Amino acid sequence: MFLSLLSFFIVSNKPAKRDFFWFFMTKPRYLLLEDGSIFKGIAFGADVNCSGEVVFTTGMSGYPESLTDSSYQGQILTFTYPLIGNYGVGEDETLFESKGIKVRGVVVSTNVKNYSHWQATQSFENWLKKENIPGISSIDTRSLTIRLRDKGTMLGVLKDKPVKEKMEDPNLTNLVSEVSIKKPVTLGSGKKRILAIDCGVKQGIIESLLQRDTTVIRVPWDFDPYADDARFDGVVISNGPGDPKMVKKTVLTVKKIIAKKIPLLGICLGNQILALAIGANTYKMKFGHRSHNQPARLKGTAKCFLTTQNHGFVVDTKTLPSGWEVWFENLNDKTNEGIRHSNLPFMAVQFHPEGKPGPYDTNWIFDEFLERVK
After folding, report:
1. Looking at residue 228, what is its pLDDT?
2. Catalytically annotated residues
3. Percent composition of the chain: helix, strand, coil (DSSP 3-state, to 5)
4. Which domain-ending residue is among 172, 202, 220?
5. Residues 133 and 160 placed together within one structural domain of the fold
6. Cβ atoms within 10 A of the Cβ of 5, count?
7. Chosen domain end from 172, 206, 228
């Protein structure tokens, strides 16, 4: 009887043949959310469990750059684009935004195994296995995204069994300390010396500075340039993960820099850290901005730029002190996209002017900053 059924599956019905072998060859994996909802799918990547903050990105490409973006530390990333892995992954680390994958887990609709790209040397799944990152595929990512959009970002776990467990919020810890470098590093030999405070800096930011005749002194998040007698002409506060209020030492350092009126540029988390340093407030967004097409309008003009973004916290512009103004605002939800001082060389943007992945519409931000560096 069993042999007859097997013969029927293999010879008579191709879809049934596929389903028959899928049943025996795949392993289930579950995504459990803190609201009690459960999504069952197919396990791929590393055979481990993980927990974190479940977020979504609407980017249609750039998954190698996204997964190596340190701003995703502590998070389980959901891709709304249904096909992930179609151009594989290369082994050239200069194509990544940091060393190694930073997300804790990956959620996709379809894990594409047959990749094609001239730089690719491995599949998306093989890359996850090497980095010990679990993934789940074949779930309704549209339904999951709608849930996260309507109810807000939630904690979750990826497990091999649908058994509930305690979920810890990664934002209650100092995630920046996990991704920042440990010792200062000097890069390039340009005329202007830029102190880059590494809160999880993307490689694209470093490259954008080096392309503009600079020397970049990349330092840890808790580095005190005045205690170490560092020499620099300007400062960049980088992007990074988590709640900006957890990096109090960086905020204190920025206060010292502002007091000495040294030109300063904040990017993403750096925008929030600058706001805290001047006495303003930040708050957690409902589901954040994670995409490559967020519209940011230059305040007071009709100019709008498409921007790459990855953040869950934002500046409360109502708390900005005198002398500070909104530089950019988001056209979708009117949240802050940048602040600057009305006459001193301090500025910051919530988006990523370097792109990678995404548009280069705001690459001029680096030029704007460096013009103020003497």
Report:
1. 84
2. 268, 352, 354
3. 25, 30, 40
4. 172
5. yes
6. 11
7. 172
